[in-house]
Amino acid sequence: MKQLMNRKINFPIKNPAMTMEALALQGQSSIHGTLASSIGARVKDLRKSLIKECFSHLENTEHRMEYVANVHGIEFINDSKATNINATWYSLGSMTKPVIWIAGGVNMGNDFKILKSLIRDKVKAIVCLGKDCSKLHKAFTDLGKPFAETHNMIEAVELARFAGNDGDVVLFSPACASFDLYKDFEERGNAFREVVKNL
User: Fold this and answer.
1) What is the total count of domains within the chain?
2) 109 and 49, same structural domain?
3) CA torsion 146→173→187→151, rounded to 10°?
């Protein structure tokens, strides 16, 4: 076992079968899932061309990093399924453009401060959608980001749109459960999608 651990293994990749950009599903969590799946597929001796074909045409799950629309150069992403800190951490981490973050709902004991470095580096403004925004506000108030509170999806989307500029992303990734305003994350995500499509 020790000999195996000390052995130097070299994996030359001269012509990669597929680049990250060619994957149908983007975002850190999707890429991690794709990589794990590809390892399993190779263990089962599936052809690389078949794996590449599959991963090029996957469709994203509704409400999970779902592209909704581009309105006046601002992308709107529906990530309503991100009902906890970990899911939102991956979503924010995958953003490459400035973010206006719509978050909030029922806090299930999450420590929002885990997101602090991502909020500092990637988020321009925060819109809190929920009945109680106090914990979210307290976690990030020292960062000096513009912060707005609302109990209404139409207002949340409008506030986010006005905070954004051409080339920005409005990311609806609540990091909280939906039960204060909606019956579940699907209803919440559908509400977001409908409002965006009516902009």
Assistant:
1) 2
2) no
3) -20
